[in-house]
Amino acid sequence: MSTLPPRAGRRCHNALNPMHSCVYFSPDLGKEFGQLGVEDPSAVYFASRGAALGAVGAGTVTSTFYNFNHTLVARHLPSVWSRITPAAALDARLRAADSTLRRVLGEEAFTSPEMAEAARLALRAAEACTRQARPLYAAHADLAVPDEPHLAYWHAATLLREHRGDGHLAALLSAGLDPMEALVSHTATGKGTSPRWVLATRGWRRTDWDAAVERLRSRGVLDAEGDLTDAGTALREELEEATDRMDAAPYEHLGADGVARLTELARGFLFTAASAGAFPDDLVGRG
Nearest Cα to 146, choosing from 94, 81, 181? Predict the structure, then answer.
């Protein structure tokens, strides 16, 4: 039985995850990889996030990233590894995380006692993450923890993000949602990535999106206007609850007070970063 308030772990994750993800929207990441001969944004993303897995091919990344079109992944993997090694990709990503956090948080935040406290709490939570059936988490768990508090915090956020993400994929499979159906139904909640961003970055076409909409309508998940039905709303909430159950251990390990404090600190950093333009304005929404 949980010792935490309802959805406490989810709220903490929702504050931590964007601080990991902001590096993928940062021009610093493209700059670092460009200096190493990798310039295509998709190649940069696949190499930077997938490097912890080693010099893997397209199949592994399509499997673990889930909602990308395999054709797009295969366009860049494994060929990207002829230009950059996984170790160099990880180093480039860490340098980009460093410069990005320094810019969007400012000197006062990333050198503050609060940052050091947040790093300690997030790393403490990550102690209870498990490797079994969680390939992206397990790969990142083998990486060394950076010494600087702001990078240790970013690293811990990465571990917690990938741990929850691996579990979420299991929930999607259990719910029978394929990659496009997962994206479309999430966008329909008003909290997911906008269709424009999905189609620009995931390798899918508008016809793929429209076909997924029709499949979800036939299942009663979406109505004629493309909104979630009551059944669709319940399905999305059941997905998150199933993910919560598979992701409970880190936050139970940290305890209610620790989770509340980490959430408070993470939200403060997130607000500062968002105010500094760390995320695209039109990233989330139904347009």
Answer: 94
